[in-house]
Design goal:
oxidoreductase, 25% helix, binds zinc ion, binds NADP nicotinamide-adenine-dinucleotide phosphate, 6-stranded parallel beta sheet, oxidoreductase activity, NAD(P)-bd_dom_sf, globular, 354 residues, metal-binding
């Protein structure tokens, strides 16, 4: 098994992704080597390779929605064996000792966790993500893909799934709760499916009515266009929880006005630009403005099991790796239904063709 594997990488800010090779580390005692089958395309991949969140460590091999099959395990690995179906999300390491890690919330590691790509690993090397043939990850950061979840529709669960599951759970999405999801993209479509499966009453707030049929089919009971100013009057005070999945800044005052007393506007979208609000938007109805980032390993496994139990996967458009740049443009144009997933088999072809 060679440590040199084929990948797709951005070599500089804003440059299209191109074929590239990366060097994996040797499989250490606690490591699992995974043959990657599918990698979802998250909007965060695009923010990163375009330097929207600050200078990236090029070459960047993005991809933190990874599913595949275990190809090798280290001598001290206990939870996985060769041939197991597994997934890796946004994190590949953390201190394991701080209060957050002990609680199973490695995403809030006080000593700094290690992200799957564009981060410095504990070995001092830049981490490389899922747009590649293989990855080596320490066992603690590997999840099991339950039987019954296909690897292509499971891949987006490792980021889009957990990023929406965690705040929906945290702020009590369930029977009797009126939940709105802003933005019907990769995260948003999973939020609709998950909130519905939790028993909440779900409304989609999308820029236009173009995806209305899809939104209702995904499980929403109502769907409104935010480009129509009448929407904000009609829905004033209507929701207990609003999950904002939008990749661009929003008018927070307008969305806060849609919350009932004690309602929560939870943001998971991560635009580069700051957002402002009027204090009164929070004070008058004792509203909360909150944020949430991905989820810990324990909750990620819980989410995968929940999805399997409810027959939920992402709605995906599977593409070849050579279509990745075109897919990025379509994500930027809000023309994704609802997650692009790269079939990494094309990387093998690219390699054997030299
Ligand atoms: P996506 O598939 O592009 O979906 C974003 C959706 O936002 C679009 O489909 C569109 O929905 C809406 N939108 C886009 N531009 C807009 C604008 N100018 N005004 C209003 N609505 C707009 O992206 P994604 O992969 O779901 O990611 C969404 C955001 O979450 C990104 O910023 C990403 O970096 C972030 N993220 C955060 C976490 C976390 O842990 N917090 C994890 C993953 C991703 P409509 O067409 O329906 O309006
Ligand atoms: Zn992501």
């Amino acid at each position: 098994m060679s440590n040199t594997v084929a990948a797709y990488a951005a070599l500089s800010a804003g440059a299209p992704l191109v074929p590239h090779t990366i060097e994996l580390r040797d499989v250490g005692p606690l490591d699992v080597r995974i043959d990657i089958r599918f990698a979802g395309i998250c909007h965060s991949d695009i923010h990163t390779v375009r330097d929207e969140w600050g200078p990236a460590n090029y070459p960047v091999v993005p991809g933190h929605e990874i599913t595949g099959v275990v190809a090798a395990v280290g001598s001290a690995v206990t939870r996985f064996a060769v041939g197991d179906r597994v997934g890796v999300g946004c994190l590949v390491d953390s201190c394991g000792e701080c209060a957050s890690c002990v609680r199973g919330e490695e995403q809030y590691c006080r000593n700094g966790n290690v992200q799957t790509y564009n981060a410095v690993g504990k070995d001092g090397r830049i981490t490389q993500g899922g747009y590649a043939q293989s990855v080596v990850v320490t066992e603690r950061f590997v999840c099991r893909i339950p039987d019954g979840l296909a690897l292509d529709v499971a891949a987006p669960l490792l980021c889009a799934g957990i990023t929406t599951y965690a705040p929906l759970r945290r702020w009590g999405a369930g029977p009797g709760k009126r939940v709105a999801v802003v933005g019907l993209g990769g995260l948003g479509h999973m939020a609709v499916k998950l909130a519905r499966a939790m028993g909440a009453d779900v409304t989609v707030l999308s820029q236009t009515l173009k995806k209305r049929e899809d939104g209702l089919a995904l499980g929403a009971t109502a769907y409104y266009a935010t480009e129509d100013p009448a929407t904000f009057g009609a829905l004033a005070g209507a929701f207990d929880l609003i999950l904002n999945t939008v990749s661009a800044p929003l008018d927070l005052d307008a969305y806060l006005s849609l919350l009932a007393v004690d309602g929560v506007l939870a943001g998971v979208g991560a635009p580069a630009e700051p957002m402002t609000l009027h204090a009164g938007s929070l004070l008058f109805q004792r509203r909360t403005l909150a944020g949430s980032i991905i989820g810990g390993l324990r909750e990620t496994q819980e989410m995968l099991d929940f999805c399997a139990a409810h027959g939920l996967g992402a709605q995906v458009e599977v593409i070849g790796v050579e279509q990745v740049n075109e897919a990025y443009e379509r994500v930027l144009a809000s023309d994704v239904r609802y997650r692009f997933v790269i079939d990494t088999a094309g990387l093998d072809r690219g390699r054997s063709n030299g």
